[in-house]
Specification:
509 residues, 8 helices, 24 strands
Length: 509
């Protein structure tokens, strides 16, 4: 059958040639761009997945940059703290030198005081000068702010906190009271009544700081015995108080590391029975309980240890040491110091707002770093850096601030209390080294681990995105060759199809 008006074979050849040209163009485009998906029609679902992965890849890359920046910030802060630490160590040496008064002239003491003043000024200068792009790091700019503290009974140090809203309530509850170590020495009378005027009562008192042996003659009053024991409290860590016809011995501090030990060496012929070493009542620390031992010649050591406070912070079991409760989680890192009254009262610790109010509120502050690709509270890390200044360092319930060592202040080395000054410096060293330790742990265990983890995530995300979007050159080269051959074949076929109707002219003769 021969038709001229409609060349069906030519139409088929044109359609096939168009398809083959389209395939050829697609292969050429993919090989030239290196991409398998360049527009939505190439692969709608693949495009959506690819774009999501590209966004995640960009966020991961920026999170890594954020972590690197955080590491740089911490390096600068660490440099300032390291210098302060060295200055505090130098202070300790000057205090020890100034405490040796024999052979030390007043001019030398004044020279030491000049050095101390210079050190304090340098610490303050470092506190205000240490900065990153003008952002001061050690002046309290990144310290957390709190409110609602009942300052007479609670103090708090916030090292880290993550929360939404304007503030975070911190609830503290005591579940086990803090206790001192203690013993009661019953002497039977207000004055020692030994077997003879030459007899002696000899016993050894020990505590966390050390031990001391005491010897008393007949007719010595309980007041004199108390004073003798207290004279060496710095040596033993034990204080004495008169209670009736006896002496109550207690450790100076609270906690399981504190203790009071008594060992009878010679009883001096003291009357047996009510005299001796008594444990303190487990439920009433101010009352004597069962007799632990009589005064004997060469008796065993009787020891009583204190007890750490135990409790919860925002419902989570906290670590208790002495009068302090601390909690360290991803969302809250805080240390709470309780007064002896609060630490011995089972129940909630109330804030300044009255009964049944949170112990305090965290209202802001801290250095926030975004260390994850998704911007939310889980991806944020918040770190507190307190003020490193002489008016702040070393100040606790029992010590003055470092500024008390300055000329004319209570703890100067010319005419002040050098012993108290050394305690202040020791506390300041502990605070600075603690801050350096926290920053170091943040760099090593948070920033370092985050960078390693994010790099792995970035690699895997890039690989997933590439498998969806990038062209396979081996496959596309094969497709290009195939399309070229098909286009050539279709062109030849189209030429034949277009020439076929000419055969109809032969029928006209």
């Amino acid at each position: 059958m021969s038709r001229i008006n409609t060349n069906v074979q030519s139409l088929i050849a044109q359609r096939v040639l168009g398809q083959n040209n389209s395939g050829l163009n697609t292969s050429l485009e993919r090989l030239s761009t290196g991409l398998k998906i360049t527009r939505g029609k190439d692969d709608p679902a693949g495009l959506i997945a690819s774009e999501n992965l590209r966004a995640e890849q960009k966020s991961l890359g920026q999170a890594i940059a954020n972590a690197d920046r955080a590491d740089q910030v911490m390096n600068i802060a660490e440099g300032g703290l390291q210098e302060v630490s060295g200055l505090l160590t130098e202070l300790q040496g000057l205090l020890t030198a100034s405490a040796s008064e024999a052979g030390l002239s007043s001019e030398e003491k004044e020279a030491n005081q000049l050095q101390i003043d210079s050190i304090l000024q340098t610490i303050d200068r470092i506190s205000t000068a240490t900065n990153f792009q003008g952002i001061k790091l050690l002046n309290g700019n990144f310290d957390f702010t709190t409110s609602g503290l009942n300052t007479g009974s609670v103090s708090a140090k916030v090292n880290g906190a993550k929360f939404t809203g304007s503030s975070l309530a911190v609830n503290v509850a005591v579940t086990q009271s803090a206790q001192r170590g203690g013993q009661f020495l019953s002497l039977g009378a207000a004055t020692l009544d030994l077997s003879s005027g030459t007899a002696q009562l000899k016993f050894e008192v020990g505590g966390k700081s050390g031990t001391r042996e005491f010897t008393f003659a007949s007719a010595t009053s309980v007041t004199q015995i108390r004073d003798a024991i207290n004279q060496f409290s710095d040596v033993t860590g034990v204080t004495a108080a008169v209670s009736g016809t006896g002496i109550k011995l207690t450790s100076e501090g609270f906690g399981s590391s504190e203790f009071v030990s008594v060992r009878s060496i010679n009883n001096g012929g003291i009357a047996a029975g009510t005299s001796g070493i008594y444990s303190l009542n487990a439920t009433n620390f101010n009352a004597a309980g069962a007799q632990a031992a009589e005064f004997t010649n060469g008796g065993n050591t009787i020891r009583d240890a204190g007890q750490n406070v135990q409790g919860t912070i925002n419902g989570v079991v906290a670590n208790g040491v002495g009068l302090n409760l601390s909690l360290s989680t991803d969302f809250l890192d805080v240390s709470v110091s309780l007064s002896s009254t609060e630490a011995q009262a089972i129940g909630n610790v109330d804030g300044s707002g009255g009964a049944n109010t949170p112990a305090f509120y965290i209202t802001g502050g801290g250095a926030d770093f975004q260390l994850a690709s998704k911007v939310d509270i889980n991806g944020k890390v918040s770190l507190g850096i307190g003020e490193i200044a002489s008016r702040k360092l070393g100040q606790t319930a029992g010590t003055s601030a470092l500024s008390s060592l300055a000329s004319g202040q209570a703890n100067n080395v010319v005419n002040g209390d050098v012993g108290a000054a050394q305690e202040t410096v020791a506390q300041a060293i502990k605070e600075v080294s603690g801050t350096r330790g926290r920053l170091g742990a943040f760099q090593k265990n948070v920033v370092g681990a985050t960078i390693r983890s994010l790099n792995i995530n970035l690699e895997n995300t890039a690989a997933a995105q590439s498998s969806i979007r990038d062209a396979d050159f081996a496959a596309e080269t094969a497709n290009l060759t195939r399309s070229q051959i098909l286009v050539s074949a279709a062109t030849n076929v189209l030429s034949l199809a277009n020439s076929q109707p000419q055969s109809a002219l032969q029928l006209l003769g």
